[in-house]
Amino acid sequence: MACVDVLIPAYNAAATLRSAVESIQAQTVRDIRIVIVNDGSTDDTPRIAAMLARDDPRVTLVNTPNQGIVEARNEALRNAASEFVACLDADDIALPHRLERELEYLAAHPECVAVGSHVEHVDEQGRALSDMTQPIDPAIADPAKAPALEPYIIQSTLLAKRAEIEAIGGYRHVPNSEDSDLFWRLSERGELVNLSERLGKYRVHAASVSSSIVNGRLMAVGSQLGAMSAMRRRAGRSDLVFSHQLHAALRKASTMDAMCALAGEQLDADERAHLRIAAAAKLMELARYRPYELDGGDCAFVRAALSHVSRLTPQNQKEVEWYVTVTAARLVRKGMLSEALGLTPLSAYPVTAARVLFSR
Predict the structure, then answer these.
(1) Distance (Å, rounded) from C-alpha 351 to C-alpha 359?
(2) Over the stretch 219-246, which tens digit does the pLDDT of each residue have?
């Protein structure tokens, strides 16, 4: 049996799958198995994956109908047998010492159930990107903040104990946030750690899951639902239910107001209020570094959600106010004046104007 099963879900990944797999084949740890799940691809992915499996007995190919990333990840887990599982998305790269460093850390820290690392951010052509943030220490995660401070590990750097992931039931259909939900639940079983060494190349491109405004709204709502689910478990309350149907319904709803109304059907009044202010803050956070911008409806949603800001700690209130003025200033600089006016409370005009004049 291999020491590590490396799980690679692939959907229409013909352009990058080979380089992803080759980066695992080049690891200093040789006792590995690579599980590729072809999630009903319609491009050349099935042929490339079949060639990789033919040429290397360590590669196992599983072909499935297209069901989405959650089912693809869970299918890969069902085909894993090693003590440890590592994840790599089909458009990312593992640097040669990645598995060695992560295995060494887990061996030296038995209290740790999962480990990730910092990464080199690259564009679609593999060129280095600057000014990109690295994941925080998962130990300082806080589900009650707006937006929630998640115990985040970049999925393509994750190495975990397989038994721990299986014990929590694998991935769930948390809208566009199945990974952060997994980390909330894993953090309840042991420590999560991000190594400061850069052990992978993470590709940032227009085809990524949160690079459209509808996907951004889904992530804004889904990520906060995952955090609220964690708060419920900590309080000994019944967990939220995340179904494939809910995900589909939220996508169809498309607007923040409609999404929060649907998601709120499982929540009490206090939770519904928190979801609105937390999701509003998360959407503004995402828009700072994604290739989309808030529209008029998003700005009206955020403005209305600010009525719930008093629920937050004083420090968190200041953080949300910072997001508002930074977002409004950016909208003004882009010529989206009506959106900026719809977003910004009158009391925030002076700070917003100063940001327009003196900030980039």
Answers:
(1) 11
(2) 999 999 999 999 999 999 999 999 989 9
Q: How far is the CA of 294 from the CAs of 146, 188, 301, 345, in angstroms?
A: 18, 34, 10, 16
pLDDT at position 128: 85
Is 339's pLDDT higher than 70? yes
Q: Which among 220, 198, 227, 184 is positioned nearest to 135, based on CA atoms?
A: 198
The answer to whether 225 touches 175, Cβ cutoff 8 Å, is yes
Give the type of residue at 320.
V
Task: Kindly tell me if the per-residue pLDDT of 206 is higher than 70.
Answer: no
Please name the residues in contact with 246: beta carbons below 8 A apart, sequence gap of 6 or more: 173, 175, 262, 263
| CA 320 to chain centroid | 21
Q: Show me where the domains of the chain are located.
A: 4-203, 213-358
Tokens of 215: 């996907």
| CATH superfamily of domain region 4-203 | Spore Coat Polysaccharide Biosynthesis Protein SpsA; Chain A (3.90.550.10)
Amino acid present at 86: A
Whole-prediction pTM: 0.93
- Determine the 3-state secondary structure of 1 from DSSP: coil
132 vs 46, residue with greater confidence: 46
Do the bridges between strand 32-39 and strand 59-64 make them parallel or antiparallel, or are there none, so unpaired?
Answer: parallel
The pLDDT of residue 62 is 98
